[in-house]
Amino acid sequence: MPSLNHLQISFPIIQAPMAGGATTPELIATVSNFGGIGGLGAGTSAPETIKQNITDIKALTQKPFMVNLIVLTEAQSRDFDCAIPDWLADYYKSNDIEVNLPKHPAQKFSEQLQVLYDNPVPIVSFTFGVVNSEQVKRLQQLGMVVIGTANHPNEAQAWEAVGADAVCVQGVEAGGHRGGWLAESDADPLGLLALISQTKNCTSLPLIAAGGIMTAQDIKAVLAAGADFAQLGTAFLATDKSGVSDDYKNALVAASQGKRCPETRLTRLFSGKLARGLVNGFLNDFAKFDNQFGNNANLPPYPQLNAMTTPMRAHAKKHHDVEHLSIWAGQGVSQVKKEPTTELLKRLVQDL
Amino acid sequence: MPSLNHLQISFPIIQAPMAGGATTPELIATVSNFGGIGGLGAGTSAPETIKQNITDIKALTQKPFMVNLIVLTEAQSRDFDCAIPDWLADYYKSNDIEVNLPKHPAQKFSEQLQVLYDNPVPIVSFTFGVVNSEQVKRLQQLGMVVIGTANHPNEAQAWEAVGADAVCVQGVEAGGHRGGWLAESDADPLGLLALISQTKNCTSLPLIAAGGIMTAQDIKAVLAAGADFAQLGTAFLATDKSGVSDDYKNALVAASQGKRCPETRLTRLFSGKLARGLVNGFLNDFAKFDNQFGNNANLPPYPQLNAMTTPMRAHAKKHHDVEHLSIWAGQGVSQVKKEPTTELLKRLVQDL
Asked: Cβ A152–B261 below 8 Å, yes or no?
């Protein structure tokens, strides 16, 4: 059976598998070849794209890497059952943006998972939900290490129950989407240190710590807290191998230089699911429709709202309008740097 | 000039100065005599009580201890300018609880501070605001180490600017009231690790880390992150020298045994200022009136709402009704134990 701790890894550093284009095969291979673990955020990719990405990564590295999928039910990925909210429809109308929603709000998870069954990779991780023990076993039998994501100890226990090899515990500090799915996970998000400590108290899974980690000292802190690995996302976003746009990179760097501690916020406005990004025009303008911590969100759920805001974000990207992009970033964003990916890795390892 | 690092302290452990009765002279002296730093939460105490407490503590220990005050303007401590909210007035009416509000919602900060000028203590810390550099200098000239509280790097910088000797950085994980005062501090609270890392990035003050710290491993983690001391509050609450009621202690311990990770929540409902406590009947029943992260809270501000809910909490305490007490607790509460204070201290030090 595979195990995270038996893989040939030199440093306990994982590059977070961020969906949406940041995690290019070049970024992943750079991290894995350096001795860490690169991660592909494949959750929003079509099956054929995932297959191609895996082929591309394997051509660039012989070292372990990770592919991350978003767990959705068939119904979640298939149906729109909510209308576009009025405030968003009004925004589209007043900005003359044509809205052609796709037939389905998301890719089919079962088809994405089949790509992994057919094209095994060293490590597969999951977010937004939990798979069943048969699926875990099948992946493991194909040689894959299986990792879950948890924002709450109860979610870590759910991953332990289905036989996962490790769990990524993602604190409130983390940029991008929160990977949990239980109500208690978002009702009052746990800080990373409390999450690590309490998860260790109730599971025996190896832990990957995620959320706000930017420096070697941050890595040392989470290892001291009991984590086995540190996962960094925002730290890689502005590096040269990252696939996000120059506008996105510049927004991160501007934020890090403009104030000592730039404002990020947890929001449901972009996708229906809680995610952390830089505060910009979109978040400010529609703040009153947001529902970060309430149980009765009156926003369409993920992935429907995600699909509904895609035309806005595509339009904004085309017009270099960072006020209407989702600039996902963690609470450590003040320490982001625009630099070669290898420079970041060297600095992290040198200071470890 | 005094300095935190030159005090005779054996262990980098501070017992948080929790206002409201938890921090008895016996608790403080036990911690200080053991080699840590005990802290008196004097923010809501009358000047003559503070003076008596200082005398009592000095009779029990020769070692360094801390007194904490709540920074309020004269106007804040003097005037009620809001009415009791309807939902609270209705609660009082339907439960036949007589409401006799005090003349002033809080003690006068200037009078409390005068007690310290007249009765110097080794360490004084402040929360809910920042004092001015003349006040800091006067305290220092009287031999006191001066510590501020910050939930955000900008607040740490404010304390550095007035000449404080150290700052307590309190992450989102922390139980009880958040010590910050700037809007950015509560808009999207920072996790402790990100707070430490970013504060170190913009100030050179020694840091005391607070929030969710329950075990020696948690302490090691915040020291690895760059903090100089760890401050623990919840961990001490159920120990024998703590002054909270048995009902309070039992509620904490029941929560820690009932579920692996009990639900705490940040709320303004008890006092008007954001504070973390166990979710109970009061928080659930009036959740829709809460306003945790919004800028336009429609609740009376601290200390007015704090004074307005005091009759409810006094009634609840008398009737052993933990559903209407403020059961302040941090996110690490699942690891709380009912035990002698010295047992907790021994376990922390042994594992360090």
From this structure: yes
Whether residues B217 and A223 touch (CB distance < 8 A) is answered with no
Contacts of A266 in chain B (CB under 8 A): 188
The chain B residue lying nearest A260, using CA atoms, is: B202
The confidence score (pLDDT) of residue A259 equals 58
Q: Which of A197, A220, A334 to mutate to test the interface with B (most CBs of B within 10 A)?
A: A197
Interface ipTM: 0.95
The mean pLDDT value for A128-153 works out to 98
Domain range for B176 is 4-351
d(CA B251, CA B321): 10
B residues 320-349 near A, CB within 8 Å? 330-332, 334-335
CB-closest option in A188, A196, A334 to B266:
A188
pLDDT score at B108: 97
DSSP summary character for residue B78: H
Contacting residues of B for A212, CB less than 8 Å apart: 191, 193-194, 197
Kindly state the DSSP code that residue B156 receives in the 8-state scheme. H
Mean pLDDT over A90-97 rounds to 97
Q: H helices of chain B, where?
A: 25-34, 47-60, 74-78, 86-94, 109-118, 133-141, 153-161, 183-187, 192-202, 216-225, 234-237, 246-258, 281-285, 304-318, 341-351
Nearest CA in chain B to A225: B221
DSSP per-residue letters across B52-75: HHHHHHHHH-SS-EEEEEE---HH
Q: How many CB atoms lie within 10 A of CB B202?
A: 15
Window A:192-231, CB contacts with B under 8 Å: 192-194, 196-198, 201-202, 211-215, 217-218, 220-226
Q: 3-state class of A176 per DSSP?
A: strand
Asked whether A243 and A21 are in contact (CB, 8 A), the reply is: yes
- Regions of chain B where pLDDT drops below 50: 295-296
Closest residue, chain A, to B226 (C-alpha): A217
Q: Which of A198, A218, A265 sits opposite B225 (nearest CB)?
A: A218
Say if CB B98 and CB B121 are below 8 A apart.
no
Tally A–B CB contacts below 8 A.
Answer: 156
Q: Which residues pair with A69 in a beta bridge?
A: A126
* Residue B298: predicted pLDDT: 80
Domain count of the fold of chain A = 1
CATH number at residue B143: 3.20.20.70
Q: Give the whole-angstrom CA distance, residue B90 versus residue A331.
A: 41
Q: What is the pLDDT of residues A278-294, one digit of tens each?
A: 999 999 999 888 877 76
Residues paired with residue A177 on neighbouring β-strands, in sequence order: A275
* Chain B hits for A173, Cβ within 8 Å: 190-191, 193-194
Q: 3-state DSSP helix/strand/coil percent for chain B, to nearest 5?
A: 45, 15, 45
Q: What is the pLDDT of residues B103-130, one digit of tens each?
A: 999 999 999 999 999 999 999 999 999 9
Mean pLDDT of chain A: 95
